[in-house]
Amino acid sequence: MAQPGLETVRAGALTTVQDLGRPGYAHLGVPRSGALDPAAHRLANRLLGNPETAATLETTLTGCAVRALAPTTAVVTGAPCPVTADGRPVPWGQPVRLAAGAVLDVGAATHGVRSYVGFAGGLDAEPVLGSRATDLLSGLGPAPLSDGDTLPLASTRPVTGRTVPDAAPWAAPPRELVLPVAYGPRHDWFTEQGLRTLVTATYRVSAASNRIGLRTEGPALARARRGELASEGMPLGAIQVPPEGRPVLFLADHPTTGGYPVIGVVPSAALGAAAQAAPGTAVRFTLTGRIHGGG
């Protein structure tokens, strides 16, 4: 019997192995990492009958293509895209049975940025600190896919006895990404005008954005204090402001410490939408309150 697994035919712009990450290691300098759109990752596993912790592939803009080395079942969620099996169109958002040797091609995203490709049983990459997630900042987990790479699968069992919906639920990314933000912990390093600018101006997603952070283009935030902070802890969703004054929203692979002031924090529940915001998307921050901190 063929060894269950996959061969990478087309790696795409950036395809990584992801699960729900490795929380709890920030004190060791290790970020959480994991799927940038956890809802899409969980949906792929739910449609396959996998535990939500099973590892999937996260693609970026251009998708990827893999060859099944043994029969398996796959599903594509997250950013909508054309999907084919051996050149034949197959449904996006529904499990598809793949014969041994079949090539699953996940095309370029038509909306959003990141698609998630799940397989029955999940990807069986070697866990590091309890997670199979690729962390681009620390270098933990499997390396991003390259053409010709092989990936083991934990199981090739078919999906049976499950009711599969007609289509995976998906809300197309809005033309304007609106993110809730609470001021703090270093909002007092900015002028009142700088604080108002954050929650009244329209920014754009920069093409320099990545899994570490969503960078923005737009008006600079005026500082009330000069100089730099000593390095301090950086939470997921922190909005750090580097010297040029444009906000940077920290995502799953963010550094755990930093010396630039954090003007506010976006709750983690809103970060999935940020992960699907393509370069050029309008971004607005809306004030929800203040958090403790500063000094």
Q: Layout of SSEs?
A:
Layout (H helix, E strand, L loop, with lengths): L4 E6 L5 E3 L19 H11 L7 E3 L5 E5 L3 E7 L4 E3 L2 E2 L6 E3 L4 E4 L8 E5 L30 E3 L23 E8 L8 H9 L2 E3 L7 E5 L14 E2 L4 E3 L7 E3 L6 E2 L3 E4 L5 H5 L6 E9 L5
Protein name: Biotin-dependent carboxyltransferase family protein
Organism: Streptomyces spirodelae
Keywords: ATP-binding, Hydrolase, Nucleotide-binding
What does this entry show, briefly?
By secondary structure, the protein is mostly beta strands.
Report on the architecture of this protein:
The chain is mainly beta and 295 residues long. 8% of the residues lie in helices and 28% in strands. It folds into two domains: 5-152, no CATH class; 176-290, Cyclophilin-like (Cyclophilin), CATH 2.40.100. It has helices at residues 38-48, 192-200, 271-275; strands spanning 5-10, 16-18, 56-58, 64-68, 72-78, 83-85, 88-89, 96-98, 103-106, 115-119, 150-152, 176-183, 203-205, 213-217, 232-233, 238-240, 248-250, 257-258, 262-265, 282-290. Strands 12-19-16-17-14-13-20 form a seven-stranded mixed β-barrel. It has a six-stranded antiparallel sheet with strand order 7-6-9-4-1-11, with no helix packed on it. A five-stranded antiparallel sheet has the order 2-3-10-5-8, covered by helices on one side.
